[in-house]
Structures are given as C-alpha cells and as structure tokens.
Amino acid sequence: MLLRAVIALAGLLLFSAPVAAQSLADLTPAQLERYDRIVDQATAIAERYIYIEGRPQAAPNEDEIRRAIAIYDEGLAIYPGRYGVWWMRGKLFQVLHEDREAFLSFQRAYALEPNSQPVINEMTIHAMELGEFELAFEAVQHGLTLFPNDLPLRARLALVQLLRGHPAEAIVAADRALEIAPNDGISRQIKRLAQEVRDGRRPQPSSMRDLTG
C-alpha cells in the first residue's frame, strides 16, 4: 500500500500543471523568452480588434479573438502578474460583449496596478454595468485622488452616486464635472436624472438599464 501511494504521489508531481511564477525574475531565460513570445503573439492579434486611437479597427472575428484570449491565458499560466496582459484580455472580451469576463479581467488588472488610468476607467465602467456599485465607487474615488481633472471619472462619480441611492451627492459630483467641462452633455444628463430622482419624479434606479427608460 505504501509503495502504491508513493507511485501515485510521483505521478501527481510529474503530471500536475506547473505553478505560475510569482515574478518575472522566477522564470528561467528560456521560460521568459517563451512567455514574451506568447504575449507578443496574442497582442499582435488583439491590436487588430481593440480600439487604439489613430489605428484602424478590424471588424470582429470571434474565432481570432478567442484564439488571442487563449494565447494570453497560456502566458498567464506562466506568469499572471502583468497587469497589461489582463487589461488586453479584458479589452478582447469587451469586443465580444462579454461583460462579466471583461470585468473579471479588468478587476485582476486593477488589483495588480490600481494607479493606471485606463485600468481604473475600464474596470469601473464594467463594475457599474454589472451592479458592482460599491467597488466602482471606491475605485472612482481612488482614481480621482490621482487624476482629479479626469472628466470621465468625474461624471462616473456622479453616476455611481446616483446608482448607490445618493442623488444629492450625484448632483454635487455632476456640478464638479461641469466645472471642468461646462458643456459636457453626459454630466448634464446625469445631473438632470439625479434631480428627477431627488424630487420624486423618477424612481431610484437600481441598474444602468433603469436610466435608459
């Protein structure tokens, strides 16, 4: 029985998936070269489909996009600590309109690098879409300590305050956004909705969909 147990344990050690590296320094030169090659391969595909200012964006090809995601996953199995890989993975799920998967990728990116403006923006957008209002609120507040004049974050603070059930605070936040950009239509719209909720002319929204009616 003991011999059988030892053989079984040896089999597990031989065939179990390798543990991902905790840092790039843990990788051998050969592993690092393979990791870089994998990430570069996935990124070459991804950049055709995600929006990058100044570059043409190809029409979505689901098979190719999922192939890029699978290649990123291969890289993440080697080293999961690079926030940009999670961000690119999230952008690909975004193209596929798979909000939950996009959010989970952006959330991982945020956990690794909470001070990145693009990561904060993408993560909070999807958090609100999925009803994760408290997470979005905390991340937006954090983002505004770093980027106080970021208009999308200012407007998003107003929106998430409204969704959290604080229309008066939403109006204050919208006014702050309008100080930065007086003609911003999104901030004006959020302020109008918050005023309607505050005054009882519109029910308290519990989701983003409630705001479109």
Structural class: mainly alpha
Low-confidence stretches: 1-18
Number of strands: 0
Q: Mind summarizing the main beta sheet?
A: none
Q: If helices are DSSP runs of H or I spanning 4 or more residues, what is the number of helices?
A: 10
N- to C-terminal separation?
A: 68 Å
Please report which band the strand proportion falls in: under 5%, 5-15%, 15-25%, 25-35%, 35-45% or over 45%: under 5%
Write the layout of secondary structure elements.
Layout: H1 2-15, H2 29-46, H3 62-78, H4 83-95, H5 99-112, H6 117-129, H7 133-146, H8 151-163, H9 167-180, H10 185-198
How would you portray this structure in words?
The protein is an all-alpha fold. It has two domains: 21-113, Tetratricopeptide repeat domain (Serine Threonine Protein Phosphatase 5, Tetratricopeptide repeat); 134-213, Serine Threonine Protein Phosphatase 5, Tetratricopeptide repeat. Helices cover 68% and strands 0% of the residues. The chain is built from ten helices and no strands. The radius of gyration is 22 Å and the shape is elongated.
